[in-house]
Specification:
Order of helices and strands: HHHHHEEHEEHEEHEEEEHEHH
CATH class of the largest domain: Alpha Beta
Number of domains: 2
Distance between the termini: 62 Å
Number of strands: 11
CATH architecture of the largest domain: 2-Layer Sandwich
CATH superfamily of the largest domain: Bira Bifunctional Protein, Domain 2
Shape: elongated
Structural class: alpha+beta
Length: 365
């Protein structure tokens, strides 16, 4: 044992005790503990050679090492408590409050995160050449479903998914619904502007759903770009540029997975690379993926419904939840809190009214 570890137990104890006393913070103290008592620490290495000793020698050496471990653990605990006490004293010294001073008036007014994120999205897509299109929130079946190539038997057209405003018996007029997506705005924009066209359609939408990540009313933004030579490559570039700007990360990586939507062909769901290490979401790193939006090339029947010749023009479309990307960017765990009218929540997540998002000045100052 002495040949393999020439340092005596007394010298080892004196050295480690000195390192414990000199540790200036919890991180340094943990490094000392690992170096001494970790799996590859000095004491642990000595414990490994006990099996090669004679029984009497092993008994003596084992008892001495166990006693040493106990003394080192006691010293580590004492030093850890002293560091914690010193840190608390320092914090109390820095965070004192003079109760005799008159209170400062509390600033009033803030921007709701949905409004903030909507402005961020508009600023980014405006820089990419997209204009903003708007439309009514009460729609008919043609704009909500027929023009989007959604067949009558599709589940999205059933009462359990869409809010309908039924006619009473004998009442004339067409059946209306609260729009389940902002896609009707795209149809109206195509009919009004024709091609080429580049628009985004942010706004409120309504669906029969309510849980941690779904509410009956939420916010979407959909994008549409139509021209003669547009391809999936343009879609991929636009979405990558948007994610880099919105999440304010240079290393954003997206993954396109084949999917099916009635209004696009081919269709793709888009995932963003992320990490859940330690229970904390980090975008742009790690080995996990999180779905953030759906996209694809506009179906020829949708182009026809919008009054555009699909033999001449083609384009892409995408849609994402504004509330969802706000949750991802700003770490908001429960979508229902967006609509609780809780001033404490708004004071925590709200934004100053004059902090208008700009690409050159910063989106989320």
């Amino acid at each position: 044992m002495d040949e393999e570890t020439p340092e005596s137990l007394e010298a080892l104890e004196a050295r480690v005790m000195g390192e414990i006393a000199a540790a200036a913070d919890a991180q340094a103290l943990e490094a000392v503990r690992v170096a001494a008592l970790g799996k590859k620490g000095a004491v642990s290495l000595r414990m490994r050679v006990l099996g090669r000793m004679a029984p009497e020698e092993r008994q003596r050496a084992g008892a001495a090492l166990n006693a040493l471990k106990e003394r080192l653990n006691a010293a580590l605990a004492a030093r850890r408590a002293a560091l914690a006490k010193a840190a608390l004293s320092d914090r109390l010294a820095r965070e004192w409050l003079d109760l005799t001073r008159p209170p400062r008036p509390e600033p009033r007014g803030s921007i709701h995160p949905v409004s903030q994120v909507t402005e961020e999205v508009v600023a980014i897509f405006a820089d990419l050449g997209f204009s903003v299109a708007e439309g009514p929130e009460i729609e008919n079946d043609f704009y909500s479903f027929d023009a989007l190539n959604i067949p009558p038997e599709h589940p999205a057209r059933q009462d359990f998914d869409t809010f309908y405003m039924y006619r009473t018996e004998g009442e004339a007029g067409e059946q209306r619904n609260l729009r389940p997506h902002t896609s009707p705005v795209q149809i109206r924009a195509m009919q009004a502007q024709g091609a080429p066209i580049r628009v985004i359609a942010p706004g409120r939408v309504y669906r029969c759903d309510y849980d941690l990540t779904h509410t009956p009313m939420f916010h979407q933004v959909e994008g549409l770009a139509i021209d003669r030579d547009i391809s999936m490559a343009h879609l991929k570039w636009v979405l990558e540029e948007f994610c880099r700007a919105f999440f304010e990360l240079d290393g954003v990586e997206l993954r396109f997975r084949a999917s099916h939507f009635p209004f696009t062909e081919p269709s793709a769901e888009v995932d963003i690379r992320c990490s859940w290490e330690g229970g904390q979401l980090r975008l742009g790193q790690g080995d996990d993926w999180m779905e953030i939006l759906g996209s694809g090339m506009v179906h020829p029947k949708v182009l026809q419904a919008g009054g555009i010749d699909p033999t001449v023009y083609q384009g892409f479309a995408f849609g994402m939840g504004i509330d969802r990307i706000a949750m991802l960017k700003y770490g908001m765990p429960d979508l229902r809190a967006f609509f609780d009218s809780d001033l404490r929540w708004l004071r925590h997540y709200g934004f100053a009214p004059l902090d208008i998002p700009t690409l050159h000045g910063g989106l989320s100052r």
